[in-house]
Amino acid sequence: MQSIALTVALVVAIGLVGSVILAFSSKALAVEEDERLDKIVDILPGLNCGSCGHPGCEGYAQAILEGAPCTDCVPGGSRVAGELAELMGVTVGGVKVRRAMVACNGAPDRIRGALIYDGPRSCRVFSTMSHVSRSCTYGCIGFGDCVEVCEFDAIRINENGVAVVNPLLCTGCGACAAVCPRHVISVHEKGASQVAAFVKCQNPNTGKRAKQACSNVCIGCGKCAKACPEGCIEVKDHYARIDTSKCSGCLVCVDQCPVGVIHPMPFCAEVE
Fold first, then answer.
1. Which residues bind [4Fe-4S] cluster 2 (predicted)?
2. Within 10 Å of residue 159's Cβ, how many Cβ atoms?
């Protein structure tokens, strides 16, 4: 009986000593959390879109405390940047302006021939299914996965079954680009001009073969590249690519394009 009592006493003593050690360690090793963290998180829109380059709004908030600029929240725009800068006691720099663009000018005839598909209307599902089609396999599928993920109602599917971005509503968060299985949607940062030219096609096939899949296709003729005064157009893989950050907005390429696949893309005032 005495041995049991001693054992119990020993266990209790060890427990008390362990508790004291843990209490002391928790205080000695505790990492103080900056009280501004919660305030920064409250200012951010809470979309966790990742357009800032960090894992969610809390990740960006922590990065701001460590010195990241207050202007990287694209959906938040100048309002959020201003509030963050005021809280952190810094000067606001230039706010990044980004817009999503859809590299497809698809005509109705791009969905042609023996297209056999009777599954869910999902671009991601469609892209993983085996089906027979003579339609363009590089253009917009048009089932609207991008529409579903857009928090700002900035995307719609037009009458030709192609995603169209409203630049007045787009914040450039990139959610639509991330969900597009064919990578038709990309996000571009505003350069010096309020408008940039953009090629609404990325079909790498040669002109004749590409034309067989869709009548609204870049044929890679290179007229736009020759006419561009800024030298920001390159024809690669049989279609033109424009560096929108260097585009001056002269839109000479739009006039020179014989097939009408280059369009002006406005970087309108950011949405507050």
1. 136, 140, 146, 180
2. 7
Binding residues for [4Fe-4S] cluster: 49, 52, 57, 73, 136, 140, 146, 150, 170, 173, 176, 180
**Do the bridges between strand 185-189 and strand 98-102 make them parallel or antiparallel, or are there none, so unpaired?**
antiparallel
Helix axes 36-43, 56-65, angle to 10 degrees: 130
- What would the pLDDT profile of 167-192 be if each residue is shown by its tens digit? 888 988 889 999 999 999 999 988 88
Q: 165 to each of 74, 172, 195, 240, 264, how far by Cα in Å?
A: 16, 10, 14, 20, 13
Query: What domains sit in the chain, N to C, each tagged with a CATH number?
Result: 36-88 (1.10.15.40), 98-266 (3.30.70.20)
Q: Give the annotated binding-site residues.
A: 49, 52, 57, 73, 136, 140, 146, 150, 170, 173, 176, 180
Q: What is the pTM of this model?
A: 0.74
